[in-house]
Here is the input.
Amino acid sequence: MYQVLARKYRPKIFDEIAGQDNIVQTLKNAVIHDRIAHAYIFSGTRGVGKTSIARILAKSINCENGPTINPCGVCSACVQIQNGSSVDVIEIDGASNTGVDAIRDLKENIIYLPQSFKYKIYIIDEVHMLSNSAFNALLKTLEEPPAHAKFIFATTELHKVPETILSRCQRFNFKRIPTDIIYRKLKEIAAAEDISVTDENLMIMASLADGSVRDSLTTFDTIISYFGKDIKEDISPVLGLTVKAAIVDLTYAIFKKDYEASIKLAKEIHDSGADIRQFIKQLAFYIRNILIIKLKYKDLINDMTDEEINALIPLAGQKHSEELLDMIDILLNSDTKYQKISSPSLTLELTLFRLINIPPKHNVTELINKIDKFISLKTNPAENPKMEGKTGKFNLNDEALTPPPPAFDSSFALRQPLPKTAAPAPAQTDRQVKIAPNDGNNTHGGSDEFFAHFDKIDEKLAQENGKQETNALIDDGIKANEAEKLDESIIMESIKDIFGKDIERIDRTKK
Here is the structure.
């Protein structure tokens, strides 16, 4: 009778457990030093080894050669526990026995000694499904069980287990199995089963498992049923995924801002019957890997082969990390929008348009350095002899820069309101005039009236001179202001070369 891979290759000893090294070592030490606790609770996602380790621990302390960290697997205790037929190792499904009656039966039977083993062990799977009354009925027995009884609980939702239960158990949190470990496990099983399969297909199965070895083996069974023992073709269509070649081609089209190619590829993906939401998730992970390479953390990519990773290096050089982050954000947010739009193809097209239209980003440090260089050469044109005798717009990307208009004093007084210029005081002149006595023939009416007339003339002349000086200052200010505007215009054009056309919005606002 055929046995599925998940059962056939289920771990039988501690050393066969993959990806849970800390937990395995702790339990091994507990067995060696005879420090087995009366209650354990194992938490973690599906398919990471919770029930398998519970059975291995039960065999380790009940084996005829035990307690031992390497149960023999051939004695009656090991065989019965492995097959699930032992009367002293009782496995209870918490989802099917949620009521208090099942716990009452447990309390009545736990007082009896095991029939053939050293310990009576209760393994309760999905323990979080028990009702509150069932948990309350279990408390006293769990805290002070008989010496021959042990409890092992397993759960995928630890937060639903009451604290009163958790406080009476040793807790172990099982982590997801890394993709590269699942990949190696699949490769070992493929060799043992004499199955020829490409590394790329093994990696697809490993990454699709989401940290669960059991899920990966279930997928492997499906692929073997379809392809047989020679698995060379891309398995993505069989699993409802988009082939990697389509993802690669679409990514190149997005990076090149090729609308036509992107729409054609989107239509092909939709027509192939692929799950659009799953495809968007695949594309997000693909761009995420490009970002990881951009940040020079290539070792963190564990769901791709070395050949596939090397193919991403040219793509990583085409975008800034901020642009890649924006792309991932758009893809993740598109899932929410997908639920509101009845047309999957329209959702995919809109998502691609958003990815293509992401504005280019520039490194801030690089831009600051360019602007600093521009200011330095502008204020000190003598530092660059290539600038002499040249006019025009600056090009910050070239080594030889064209000069600005003639330098002007940036601290010119017209940057502040013009000071009021007082009119010069009337010139004081020495008048050595001898005035004859007024004998009645003096027609000027006396010296005071005579000199008052000339004082008025001097005052008018002084006012005219003051107006001319003020007008000169104003003219100089206007010229300097025009020169400053011209210089600002050149600076703005140079900044546009750096930042792109989007800076024009700032320019218009300024005006």
Summary: The domain at 179-239 is CATH 1.10.8.60 (Helicase, Ruva Protein; domain 3). The mean pLDDT is 78.
